[in-house]
Amino acid sequence: KTTRALEELQIEMIDRFGLLPEPTKHLFQINALRLKAQPLQLERIDAHAGGGSLRFGKRPNINPAALIDLVQKQYGIFKLEGQEKLKFSVDLSDVSSRFEFIDGLIEALTPKS
Q: Are 79 and 73 in contact (CB under 8 A)?
């Protein structure tokens, strides 16, 4: 339920089983992204080798200026599909690049206090 709880679980698993295999590390990264995206009211995050998309909930809590900026300044990469979906086309053939890209995108769309 929290980033701290996720970190504690990961530490406990390492203590019990040793170094984690890549798929297990990815599972922890996915859940960390879910926790980070939860306040934004994102319904779905998809990422694959050629890009992906973010699907917004009914009342997304995002920085609208940042969203507009992404679409206008990086039109070849980002495109809105209706009001509920932001698609992106970028080379994400490496799994770690997917996590980094999505993390950066969530960070960019997070409202600043």
A: no
Nearest residue to 24 via CA among 6, 51, 42: 6
Residue 80 tokens read as 């809105």
Torsion sign over Cα 61, 62, 68, 74: negative
Residue 102 CA from chain centroid, whole number: 4
**What pTM did the predictor assign?**
0.85
Distance in angstroms (rounded) separating the CA atoms of residues 105 and 109: 6
Residue 7: enclosing H or E segment and its boundaries?
Answer: helix 3-17
Q: 64, 36 in Cβ contact below 8 A?
A: no
Q: What is the mean pLDDT of each run of 10 residues along the chain (113 residues)?
A: 88 91 91 92 94 93 93 93 93 93 95 82
